[in-house]
Write a structure and sequence with these properties.
This protein has a single domain (about 10-195, about 245-320), classed as Cytosolic phospholipase A2 catalytic domain (3-Layer(aba) Sandwich). It is built from nine helices and ten strands. The strands form two sheets. Strands 1, 2, 4, 5, 7, 8, 9 and 10 form an eight-stranded mixed beta sheet that branches. The chain starts with 9 loop residues before the first strand and ends with a helix. Strand 7 and strand 8 (about 155-160) form a beta hairpin. With about 325 residues, it is an alpha/beta fold.
Length: about 325
C-alpha cells in the first residue's frame, strides 16, 4: 500500500558503480516494501541500466537474470575489440534491447533519464528522450572498457566521469524529494581519500582479537557473506582494516578497476557536497569489484539492508503516517 506523503514528486537517483549496481535492485525492492514508490528515476552507468529496466516494469526479470549469472556466462557476454575500448558491448546491450523492444524513453512506464559525458568537452549530457537502448549504452561506456557511442554527432562515454550520482538531474526532472543511492562510499577498502567514512564507529584495536576476527553485520543485523568478512582483508561494517600492500605489479584490469574506483569516489563526494540529496543511501560494497557481475545476491541484499537502515529518516522526510 502506498502511504500518504508530504512530497508530491519523489525522484530516485541510481549511481554508477559497474557490478556493484546490482545493489540498486535490493534498494528498489526495499522502498516498494515500505510503501515508497518513486515518481521519476534517473541514473548513471549501471544505475541508468537498472533504472531503465525498472521504468520499463522489468525488475523481476532483471533480478532473476542476474541471480543466474556466473563468471563463465559473464565472459561469454564479452565481445573483445581493439579500437575505442576493450569491449564493444554489442552482446550485452542486445540482451536488454530485446526487453526494451524498440521503446523510446517517452514510452516507459515512468519518467526516466540517463547521464553520459561528452568525450571532447567533458560536459555531462542528460539523455531524456529518444531510444532507451541508445541512452543506456552511452551511459555505460566506461572509457577504455566499452567503446564510446556517437550520439547526434558527439562521442559519449560513461556518465560517471561527470556525475556519478546525478541528483541535479532528478531536480531537473522536478523531483521535490530526492532519494539517491551512492555505490561509491565504501569501495576503497577503508583507505582515506579525503574524508572520514560515514556512520562508521571508532574501534579500539586492543578490543579486536587476533585469533577470532569479529563477524561483520549488515545494517539490518544479518551477517555479511564470508567473502565480505574482515578475515580475508575485506571491509566490514564494524572493522575497517586496509589490506596489506602487495609487492606484485597490479594487472592491467586491476589497475583500471582501482583507478575507476578512485575517480568515482572523488567525483561522487565533490558532486554530492554541492548537490546533496534529501536522502542518501550508501550500501556497504567495499569487498565487491567492478567486474564481479556474478556476485549479485550479496549486492542485492546489501542494497536492501542500506534502505532498511535509512527507513526512519525516509519516512520522516516524506511525512509518512
Amino acid at each position: 500500500m502506498i502511504r500518504r506523503r508530504r512530497h508530491s514528486r519523489i525522484g530516485l537517483v541510481l549511481g554508477g558503480g559497474a557490478a556493484r549496481g546490482w545493489a540498486h535492485i535490493g534498494a528498489i525492492r526495499a522502498l516498494h516494501d515500505a510503501g515508497i514508490k518513486p515518481d521519476v528515476v534517473c541514473g548513471t552507468s549501471i544505475g541508468a541500466l537498472v533504472g531503465a529496466v525498472y521504468a520499463n516494469g522489468d525488475l523481476d526479470w532483471l533480478e532473476e537474470w542476474v541471480a543466474k549469472l556466473t563468471w563463465q556466462t559473464v565472459v561469454r557476454l564479452l565481445d573483445l575489440r581493439f579500437s575505442g575500448g576493450l569491449l564493444g558491448g554489442r552482446k550485452v546491450i542486445q540482451l536488454f534491447a530485446d526487453k526494451f523492444n524498440g521503446r523510446s524513453i517517452a514510452q516507459l512506464n515512468m519518467p526516466f533519464a540517463a547521464v553520459a559525458t561528452e568525450l571532447d568537452t567533458g560536459r555531462e549530457s542528460w539523455l531524456q528522450d529518444g531510444s532507451v537502448v541508445d541512452a543506456v549504452r552511452a551511459s555505460i561506456a566506461i572509457p577504455g572498457i566499452f567503446t564510446p557511442v556517437l550520439h547526434e554527432g558527439v562521442w559519449l562515454v560513461d556518465g560517471g566521469l561527470s556525475n556519478p550520482v546525478p541528483v541535479s538531474l532528478a531536480r531537473g526532472m522536478r523531483a521535490d524529494c530526492v532519494i539517491a543511492v551512492d555505490l561509491n562510499n565504501d569501495i576503497l577498502n577503508g583507505r582515506d581519500f579525503g574524508g572520514a567514512a560515514v556512520d562508521t564507529p571508532a574501534v579500539d584495536p586492543a578490543a579486536i582479537s587476533a585469533t577470532t576476527p569479529p563477524v561483520a553485520l549488515r545494517r539490518n543485523g544479518k551477517p555479511f557473506p564470508s567473502w565480505l568478512q574482515p578475515g580475508d582483508g575485506r571491509v566490514s561494517e564494524d572493522v575497517r582494516v586496509p589490506p596489506a600492500p602487495s609487492a606484485r605489479v597490479p594487472s592491467m584490469l586491476s589497475s583500471v578497476a582501482q583507478s575507476i574506483d578512485i575517480m568515482q569516489v572523488r567525483i561522487s563526494r565533490s558532486r554530492l557536497a554541492g548537490e546533496p540529496a534529501d536522502i542518501l543511501i550508501q550500501p556497504r560494497l567495499g569487498g565487491m569489484g567492478i567486474f564481479d557481475f556474478h556476485s549479485a545476491a550479496p549486492a542485492i541484499e546489501e542494497g536492501r539492508a542500506a534502505v532498511e537502515h535509512m527507513l526512519p529518516a525516509i519516512r520522516a522526510r516524506l511525512g509518512m503516517d
